[in-house]
Design brief:
Blueprint lengths: L1 H9 L15 H6 L6 H17 L1 H14 L2 H14 L3 H21 L3 H11 L7 H12 L3 H23 L4 H11 L3 H8 L12 H12 L8
Length: 226
């Protein structure tokens, strides 16, 4: 029971790591009319979760396995491979800023030698510091298996987008909870689809999202960093 409670703590959208400042492109999706109501918001969340599974999720699984094996080099490889595949400076900033803050937070709560070494590598510019990699290391240290780590990461992504939606559009908490419940129905299928992928196979075809990221960098009025 304690194990489950701690997993829930690290997937909480109110975790003080700065994720509240990011919307995963939702702001631009609303400005361009791609998202306008609960139905289109569900489609958008579904798109992001699919993309996340095939990018962040694969890196997370490899980092989790590397953390269990005590292989710091393999952790750094997963970190750099994910960072290089993120389109746009803002996406890279989100991953690394929140990733570093996550590591710092966890290390104030518990002792985790592998995570401490990873944070040292970030500060030494030896690794980018992407959030999914930090989550993988911390959860492996806590005894969470890779399925739990994957599900926690996907839940946190969906929750972050819907938290932003409450501040950006006319939608209530009941709608966002229905959307989150529906969207999470894909997590098992996504895990089974990517669990055997190599880092070289880490890729996602989501041109609409890439265009939204590019659009956001040129807008003059913004509530969110991306």
């Amino acid at each position: 029971m304690v194990h489950l409670a701690r997993l829930l703590q690290f997937s909480d959208s109110t975790l003080p790591i700065g994720s509240f400042a990011f919307s995963n492109g939702l702001e631009s999706a609303l400005q361009t009319g791609i998202v306008s109501d609960p139905a289109s918001l569900l489609s958008y969340v579904d798109l992001i979760l699919r993309q996340s599974a095939r990018m962040d999720g694969i890196a997370l699984l490899h980092a989790h396995r590397a953390a269990l094996a005590g292989d710091d080099e393999a952790i750094r490889l997963a970190d750099s491979e994910l960072f290089c595949r993120r389109v746009g400076e803002e996406q890279q900033l989100m991953l690394t800023r929140v990733g570093k803050k996550f590591a710092e937070l966890v290390l104030t709560i518990m002792t985790a030698p592998t995570l401490e070494r990873w944070l040292g590598d970030i500060k030494a510019n030896a690794t980018p510091g992407c959030l999914p990699v930090g989550q993988a290391i911390a959860l492996a240290h806590m005894g969470a298996d890779e399925v739990e780590a994957f599900a926690m990461h996907q839940y946190a992504i969906g929750s972050m987008i819907l938290s932003a939606a409450l501040r950006l559009m006319r939608i209530d908490h009941l709608d966002t909870q229905r959307i989150l419940f529906t969207a999470q129905g894909r997590v098992e299928g996504d895990y089974l689809a990517v669990r055997d992928f190599s880092l070289d196979e880490m890729a996602s075809f989501a041109p609409v999202f890439d265009v939204l990221v590019a659009h956001h960098t040129t807008t003059h009025l913004r509530l969110f960093m991306n």
